[in-house]
Amino acid sequence: MLYRENGQFKTSYAADSQIFAIRQDRIAIGLLLAFAVIGVPLLADEYLLRAILIPFLILSLAAIGLNILVGYCGQISLGTGAFMAVGAYAAYNFFARIDGMPLIAALLLGGVCATVVGVFFGVPSLRIKGLYLAVATLAAQFFTDWAFLRIKWFTLDSASGSVSVSNLAVFGMPIDSPLQKYLFCLAFVIVFALIAKNLVRGHIGRAWMAMRDMDVAAAVIGIRPVAAKLSAFAVSSFIVGVAGALWGFVYLGSWEPAAFSIDRSFQLLFMVIIGGLGSIMGAFFGAAFMVVLPIALAQALPVLGGWLGLHVDTALVSHVEYMVFGALIVFFLIVEPHGLAKLWSTGKEKLRLWPFPH
């Protein structure tokens, strides 16, 4: 009975087209943001911030970028880790080579460099699609892995191939503690999630979805495939590049090319599939699932093994994790292709109609 829209009348186009059309949704999102900004700093400890919340926020941002390309535009990509790597290493070079480079500017410039690389590898999407496009984006992954490992200029001639950053600050305020890093990442996620949500609701997003549903029909009604596909690659790569820069600067602090390997690309793709294709909210669901599940399995399996009298080591936990992820991906592709976001949407629709069966 609480989730009803009785008496909520729309008297303008702006009111009818707002992001959260129901008052209860606006209140819930406001409370959620207030808790994220005020409640989490008061309640969360250092482990929760470092191990769960910070990677959750950064991976959510990367999943939003990938979802724009895969979920909204229908262009398959297996090279998301490559664009994250480009963003991280480009931001590192801007930050290390230019004295006085602001941290935010370096992160955004890393996203711009990832945009250029993403558009370059997105050009084949104008002629190929499906599995062939996936292979083309996979080439980006292998190329960046080789480039950042072999070309020493990207790592400032580091002998080990690893790079590190320190003394991060924004407007004179240091970004050192886990809480400061959490709030910094949270600000980025809120801004980019809002931008992405408005993009997919506008004419640009409608062009992307038209290309996803049927590209020939979209071209017939006047949508330019070149602009639609390359803009999707550009926006997606920019967001993913910024996420990669945050992953390197804020979460890792010191990294090497293996931090953005093909495993990272598959992990992000799994997030989008489990969370929900074509849904901004689904990116958060998928990231939360992928971050929390390994930790839950690592803690639950040894306890379960002790009850059964079995020895559970780290390797077994890792293998079970892959098995669970694979089974869940198959389950969602068969039972609910739109992922957790669709289940969430269905639940809200049922609440709006309850107790009526229709």
Largest sheet entry: 2 strands, antiparallel
Helix content: over 70%
Elements, N to C (H/E): HHHHHHEEEHHHHEHHHH
Q: What is the radius of gyration computed over CA atoms, rounded to a whole number of angstroms?
A: 21 Å
Average predicted confidence as pLDDT: 87
Tell me the strand order in the biggest sheet.
1-4
Q: Could you give the count of β-strands?
A: 4
Report the span from N to C terminus. Answer: 15 Å
Notable characteristics:
mainly alpha; two-stranded antiparallel sheet; 72% helix; globular
Description:
The structure is a single chain. With 358 residues, the chain is mainly alpha-helical. 72% of the residues lie in helices and 2% in strands. The strands form two sheets. Strands 1-4 form a two-stranded antiparallel sheet. A two-stranded antiparallel sheet has the order 2-3. Strand 2 (169-170) and strand 3 (173-174) form a beta hairpin. The protein is globular, with a radius of gyration of 21 Å.
What's a quick, concise take on this entry?
The chain is an all-alpha fold and 358 residues long. 72% of the residues lie in helices and 2% in strands. A hairpin with a 2-residue loop joins strand 2 (169-170) and strand 3.
Question: Secondary-structure blueprint of this entry?
Answer:
Elements: H1 13-16, H2 23-43, H3 46-72, H4 80-97, H5 103-122, H6 131-150, E1 163-164, E2 169-170, E3 173-174, H7 178-201, H8 203-213, H9 215-220, H10 225-252, E4 254-255, H11 262-275, H12 280-308, H13 314-335, H14 339-353
Antiparallel strand pairs: 1-4, 2-3
